[in-house]
Design brief:
The chain has helices spanning 10-20, 36-53, 69-80, 94-104, 116-123, 152-156, 191-205, 225-233, 251-260, 270-277, 301-310, 384-390, 429-436, 473-481, 509-514; strands at residues 25-29, 32-35, 60-64, 84-87, 108-111, 131-134, 149-151, 171-176, 186-190, 215-218, 242-245, 265-268, 291-294, 315-320, 330-331, 350-354, 367-372, 379-380, 396-404, 410-415, 420-422, 425-427, 442-452, 456-465, 492-496. With 516 residues, it is an alpha/beta fold.
Length: 516
């Protein structure tokens, strides 16, 4: 049995979860454990602290912290006080953070002492900001500033107050996209959208009648839509369970925690899986681990095969989503995975493949992935034209190329903007990358196009070798030539020490293009 997908604010759903799990351990973090009742009491006081400090319904609160209990507490408290959260990754530059603060018209920022100098520098001159809340004490306040500094602990010492009612259709989170084509855009997600996405993910996992999860491990940044939606999933669970939260992913730490806490399920992105494969994973007791959910970026088949070969009792399930869909478009229920596929649309969500002329693609035919469902964004913040274009004809146009097979499984081919057109032939970078990764001495590959006077574009491959490997660029060109058509194989191969990753562990093609 699941709770309702929509119709209740996230604050109301949190109250219901507290009632179910008041005495159950719900969160483990760096040796400390918190029950549902303890979390409830802290959130109720913190929400009243925000309200007393002046937070008005609908106002945005930027949250800039590494993973810690205070992140989730802040989200829940802001929702209970009637506000909306704007999660940002602490790795943002001052300029990027300043853009978010200014564009979101934030009222408050919540951070920790180590990031306070950057926050204060970014906040200078932002007229809507009324204060910075510091979790972990004000001793490290440092630079002078014109903004009031509020102690998180003092806000949390407020008496418990009443929940501020909000409609479930109103703004719950304003998340900023990566900004690969200019300034990042704010994606407006309502309470209903986040709730529906989390509900759909939980419902899909229950289709096979798998026993409930007791312990899960969460290394994903809670500031990213994937991590945020995974955390909201707990509000729809009716069985007790606890989450082990990592401050920041590191492979050795993940393995130690998975063994120590007898973790059954963990959500990862593909680059994290590759980092784990570089570790002696067989040396850890992972006998409780049943499943790893992979999302956020395409997972190379060779990586999935190696992982399941080295951990034969563990299933990798792939999913697919984007910020505009609250992180979910398709998912692979346990025991129903298909190699290379990101699964099927879960309950509530419809997906179609659209050709360039707007018609539906046939089975097996490539086209743009388009989505309908209650999990979709309301729109882009203060960007009506871009909203209308992305949501034209009532469908979210993802900008991703995909196709369906005859059984309704979805395959993501590539990003439309990453497509390379070489001599009039479409070349998908992922096809080239997957072929290169079949070589045992290649552990990473990133493919982009560069301008070519004769062909329009030429294929360039950046390759990371296994330590000790002695492949040359010519060797790699020859290897690729034997596995790809003449139009696809890269003529330009550049061997690098490490491939650049974004702050959420995705391949950074933008950084690769700057190296051309």
């Amino acid at each position: 049995m699941l709770t309702d997908a929509t119709g209740l604010s996230l604050a109301r759903l949190t109250e219901l979860a507290w009632d179910r799990f008041a005495d159950e351990s719900r969160l483990h973090f760096e040796g400390a454990a918190l029950t549902g009742g303890q979390l409830a009491a802290r959130v109720r006081r913190l929400a009243e602290g925000f309200r007393t400090a002046g937070l008005a319904p609908g106002e945005r609160v930027v949250v800039c912290m590494a993973n810690c209990p205070e992140v989730g507490l802040t989200y829940s408290a802001v929702w209970r006080a009637g506000g909306a959260t704007t999660p940002v990754l602490f790795l943002l530059s001052e300029d990027e953070l300043r853009h978010v603060l200014h564009d979101s018209e934030a009222a408050y920022v919540v951070t920790t002492p180590e990031f306070l100098p950057k926050v204060l520098a970014s906040a200078a001159g932002i007229s809507t900001l009324r204060g910075v809340v510091v979790a972990g004490g004000l001793d490290a306040a440092g630079a002078e500033n014109s903004l009031p500094l509020l102690d998180f602990a003092e806000l949390e010492a407020a008496p418990e107050g009443e929940l501020v009612p909000r409609e479930s259709t109103e703004l719950a989170a304003l998340l900023y996209t990566g900004g690969t084509t200019g300034r990042s855009k704010g994606v407006m997600l309502s309470h209903d959208a986040l709730s529906a996405a989390a509900w759909a993910a939980v419902a899909a996992g229950k289709e096979t009648g798998e026993p409930p999860t007791t312990v899960s491990l969460l290394p994903l940044p809670l500031s990213h839509v994937y991590g945020l939606t995974v955390s909201v999933m707990g509000l729809h669970q009716t069985e007790p369970g606890t989450s082990v939260l990592m401050r920041w992913f590191d492979p050795a730490g993940w393995l130690s925690l998975a063994a120590e806490h007898r973790v059954e399920i963990s959500a990862l992105v593909p680059s994290m899986i590759q980092m784990l494969l570089a570790q002696p994973i067989e040396d850890y007791d992972l006998s409780a681990l049943r499943r790893v959910a992979s999302g956020g970026a395409p997972l190379a088949p060779e990586v999935a095969e190696e992982f399941t070969k080295r951990l034969p009792g563990v299933e990798i399930v792939e999913g697919y989503g984007c910020t505009e869909s609250a992180a979910i478009i398709s998912t692979s229920p346990p025991g129903m995975t298909r190699a290379g596929s990101v699964g099927k649309p879960p309950p509530l969500i419809d997906v179609r493949i659209e050709k360039a002329d707007g018609s539906d693609a046939a089975v097996g035919e490539d086209g743009e992935i388009c989505v309908q469902g209650p999990n979709l964004m309301t729109g882009y913040w203060n960007a009506p034209d871009e909203t209308a274009y992305a949501l034209r004809d009532g469908w979210l146009h993802t900008g991703d190329i995909g196709r369906f097979d005859g059984d309704g499984y979805l395959y993501v081919v590539d990003r439309i903007k990453d497509l390379i057109i070489r001599g009039g032939i479409n070349v998908y970078p992922r096809d080239v990358e997957d072929a290169l990764l079949e070589h045992p001495d290649i552990v990473g590959a990133g493919v982009v196009g560069k301008k070519d006077a004769k062909l329009g574009e030429e294929v360039v491959a950046f390759v990371q070798l296994r330590p000790g490997a002695s492949l040359t660029a010519d060797d790699i060109v020859g290897y690729a030539r034997g596995r790809l058509s003449a139009a696809k194989y890269p003529r330009d191969v550049r061997i690098v020490d490490a491939l650049p990753l974004t702050s959420v562990f995705k391949l950074d093609r933008k950084a690769l293009r700057t190296q051309l």
